[in-house]
Write a structure and sequence with these properties.
Number of domains: 2
Number of helices: 7
Radius of gyration: 21 Å
CATH architecture of the largest domain: 3-Layer(aba) Sandwich
CATH class of the largest domain: Alpha Beta
CATH superfamily of the largest domain: P-loop containing nucleotide triphosphate hydrolases
Helix content: 25-40%
Number of strands: 12
Bound molecules: adenosine-5'-triphosphate
Structural class: alpha/beta
Order of helices and strands: EEEEEHEEHHHEHEHEEHE
CATH topology of the largest domain: Rossmann fold
Length: about 280
Amino acid sequence: MTTFSLNLGSVKARHEDAVDAPALPRSPVQARQLSKRFGANTILDNLDLEIRAGEFVALLGRSGSGKTTLLRALAGLDRISSGTLEVPQARAAVFQEPRLMPWKRAWRNVTLGLKIDHPRQRALAALEEVGLAHRENAWPATLSGGEAQRVALARALVREPQLLLLDEPFAALDALTRIRMHQLILSLWRQHRPSVLLVTHDVDEAVLLADRVLVLEQGRIAADIAITQQRPRSADAPRFQQVRAQLLQLLGVELDTPASAQPETPAAPAPIITPFNFSNFSI
Ligand SMILES: Nc1ncnc2c1ncn2[C@@H]1O[C@H](COP(=O)(O)OP(=O)(O)OP(=O)(O)O)[C@@H](O)[C@H]1O
């Protein structure tokens, strides 16, 4: 049997016996029949999820559908009620708010809680990756929202995560900063290749960034859409808009058709969209 373990870009193979056929690497994130209940409320209901090594997955869902609950379970912040969950040890999370300690300078926030050699150099290297080496000694209160979020990203990077969990990390940023953060996150992902789970409300963000977009509904993954369009992606591309419209429909958002585009003759009945039909759908 051949087994692989991935450690940030370096794949180590261990051959236990001589077999010619290559084995597929085991997905680092595997949830089977995962349930999470809060009292009598079942939020995640026998959910199955797999995220492959180096895969960028976005998770959409209506408000209250359980996205953060799932992310917190993957982060090890909350216990699951039942089922099985496999996640890499090396994982890190970035949330909507940067959660920096105000009494620690930027670089100390980056290595907070880590017992490593040369913490300052390590922090500086991570800050450099997010373009903030010059702010290593800054107090959090003096950072802009985007800078604070980049420090939070550096704090995640310094942990060399195999799984990077992002819970709406761009939601509180202005539109321009958000675009820059999208570029930054893609470039860091390309360089380090962690598996990523990005929770977002923003359908465009999901389709722009991810390899696969999942929709969470009634405690389960109701749609799983592969996005094969090459990056950088354009939101103007017809295929992008097609997937965007489908995702919005799955999320219960009705798009108004412009009056000029309304057909004069009665339209054919709209196709019934069954979420599971989207499995392996790709643009
Ligand atoms: N610690 C908790 N105790 C009780 N109920 C909780 C707890 N955490 C979350 N919930 C409930 O679980 C449900 C899902 O919450 P969650 O935050 O995961 O949803 P979400 O999809 O991330 O929502 P949003 O998009 O609004 O952030 C909600 O009904 C919420 O009230």
